[in-house]
Each structure stands twice: as structure tokens, then as C-alpha cells.
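Course assignment 3, question 2. Fill in each field.
Student: A.L.
Task: Predict the tertiary structure for the chain below.
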Amino acid sequence: MKAYVITVKDNEVSEKAAAACIDSHNRVNNDFPIEIYYGMTPDKVDFEFRLLHFRWTYPWDKERVDIRSGLKLTPYTTADPKKRIACFLSHYNLWFNCVQTKSPILILEHDAIFTHQFNYQYTLDSKYGIIGINNPIGATRRASVFDNQVQMTRSINHNADGVVPVPTVDSFDVPQGLAGNSAYVIKPDGAQKLLDVVTEHGAWPNDAIMCKQLLPNVLGVTKKYYTKVQGTRSTTTL
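Answer field:
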């Protein structure tokens, strides 16, 4: 398995955070390769969307219910929509790469940092196609609810290892999935299902389209967290 750190080229905040991510990877002695993946830039998103025949169907200003899925879609705080779209495309291109190479990969956003050595084989052996490894605290809304459910599962099973279903932390009509999408293993079968969801529903922010409602029985999370977020300034919100 190979890891990619999505990085905004020539962005000081992103480049510095990505370097810290790679340094933490080396510090915990992970035994898989990792490299910088320079993501899509806002100036190229229009061309890329035309090339892929994509439609952006997620709302920018006003909440709406998606008729096809029944999900309530709430706009993200976004000063420059093309930065949000570029983030989606960066993830999407790695999903596509996963399918084309028929190889699982670990996708990291630049603000992820390793806290423990990640012995990943058990995630590849699990039934889930996409597995989050990130500590939810500081990474997602209702993080304590997310964490409490995962820790409860650890306590019941008396086992720190293993993969469990992504917790339910909100009402059924709110998209919910991994903790911030900052660090996750994705296998070819999971990536293909995700590409199919994008084809059916259109392009959404990557952490919204990758939700348990649209990907039933695909999303899992490790009972032990291997990364956390660095708390750097957002490069998509601002």
C-alpha cells in the first residue's frame, strides 16, 4: 500500500503541514511509502469538469433536500467555491487512480499527522471498502459522539484492533461518514462504488459525497486512531 498527502502546491500553509505529515510518518516508522500529491488548483477546475462531464449539485447558499437521496444538504462556509471544488477533484482523482491501478491506497490531507505506527494489513482484510483512521476530535462535528461510540465498541469487544462501522452521529437525513476525511484507506472496490455515487448524484464536497447513506456497508473506522489533525488554517473555507 502507498500513501499520498494531498498538498496545495506553493501554498505555504499546505506545504508546511504536508512536510510535518511526512515527518510524522517517518517518526512512527511506518513501513509503507508516502509521497506528496499536488492536488487540483482552482484555476483548472472548469476545464476538469468539462473533461469529466461533471455537474456540481451541492448547494452553495441555501439548504435544500436532495430529492434523489432524501438527504438534507447544508452549504459549507466557502469564500471561494473553486477551492472547494478543487479539493473534491483532488480526492476524486486519487479514487480514480485506486480503481485504475487496482491497488489500495491511503489518502491523507495535508493537515493529518501520524500519532501511532499504522500496521495497515488488518484494514485491507476487513469487509469495508473505505476505512477512516483519523481521531475525530477536532476533525469533525459531533466528534465526541463519534468517539464515544467507537470507544464503546472497543470496550465491548475488549480489543483495540479491528474495524467497526462508521458511527451514526446525527439524524438519518444528514450526510455523515468519516472523521473529517483527513486520513482514510480506500480499496479499489470502495473507490469504484464512490465513483458510481458521483456519477449518479453529481459532485459534492468530498466528505459529504462519501457518506454512509450513499455508501451503505462500505465505510468503516479503525477502533484505534492512527492520525489526528494538526489544526492548521483551512485552505478551502477561506
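Instructor remarks: The first helix runs from residue 12 to 27. The chain has one domain: 2-229.
Grade: pending
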